[in-house]
């Protein structure tokens, strides 16, 4: 994937390449989807380990290069496409769960994550090993009450268990970016059923809760259309009246959502 203004940053640290593939686990009987294979360094390692490898690349020149390199390896399929337009249901056969590896472009990390969460919620994905800007990675794994905790944190943790594995300096890439990157492992495990909430409604509720970081949770809900008196009546006793969404865990937010389901 490439943004002309910024270009691509290829992972060239061989130790890191090996560590990422190792952290994916045993994929010998599984499908692996690689997002942005670049020149194929990780692709080469994956091709020797998995049952089938689907590499999604938007750069036509790289696709041509990789198709030639892997022309005698029928288990490797190159898909020339923008990952944001790919339908994962077409890539993963019914009854299977794929694994994902990706070096996510900084400028579209969040949209890609949303696509992965949607696929995970459909039971199509099992695990992902993702490289991204450390600042974004910190937000994904942040706990309630931390400065980094926000909508992306809550959305991620509703859909997956997050583990930060290691950081990568700019020198690990060519050309080197201006930021440090992190490698995360995500185990897709949606919590909607566990917490007794519907996915579509609760996702919108989270967006309402975190709409304005400086506002209290109650004020954000009123701004979203919940009547002030109704919010006060449904407010759980265990949540402080002046609490902000950033201070609450998913369990507390789910309990509040359940109490407000008939509203507005």
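Q: What amino acid sequence fits the structure above?
A:
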């Amino acid at each position: 994937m490439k943004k002309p203004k910024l270009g691509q940053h290829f992972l060239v640290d061989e130790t890191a390449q090996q560590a990422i593939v190792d952290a994916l686990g045993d994929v010998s009987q599984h499908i692996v989807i690689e997002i942005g294979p670049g020149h194929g360094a990780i692709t080469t390692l994956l091709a020797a380990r998995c049952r089938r490898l689907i590499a999604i690349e938007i750069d036509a020149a790289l696709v041509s290069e990789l198709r030639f390199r892997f022309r005698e390896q029928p288990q490797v399929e190159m898909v020339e496409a923008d990952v944001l337009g790919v339908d994962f249901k077409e890539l993963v056969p019914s009854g299977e769960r794929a694994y994902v590896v990706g070096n996510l472009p900084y400028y579209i990390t969040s949209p890609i994550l949303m696509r992965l969460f949607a696929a995970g919620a459909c039971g199509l994905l099992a695990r992902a090993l993702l490289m991204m800007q450390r600042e974004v990675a910190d937000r994904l794994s942040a706990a309630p009450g931390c400065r980094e905790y926000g909508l992306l944190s809550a959305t991620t943790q509703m859909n997956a268990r997050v583990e930060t594995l290691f950081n990568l300096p700019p020198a690990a890439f060519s050309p080197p970016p201006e930021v440090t990157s992190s490698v995360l492992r995500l185990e897709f495990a949606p919590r909607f059923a566990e917490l007794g909430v519907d996915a579509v409604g609760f996702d919108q509720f989270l967006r309402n809760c975190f709409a304005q970081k400086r506002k209290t949770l109650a004020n954000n809900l009123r701004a979203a259309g919940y009547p002030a008196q109704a919010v006060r009546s449904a407010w759980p006793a265990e949540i402080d009246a002046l609490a902000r969404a950033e201070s609450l865990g998913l369990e507390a937010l789910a309990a509040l959502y359940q109490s407000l389901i008939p509203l507005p």
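Q: And what stands out in the fold?
A: The first strand starts at residue 10 and ends at 11.
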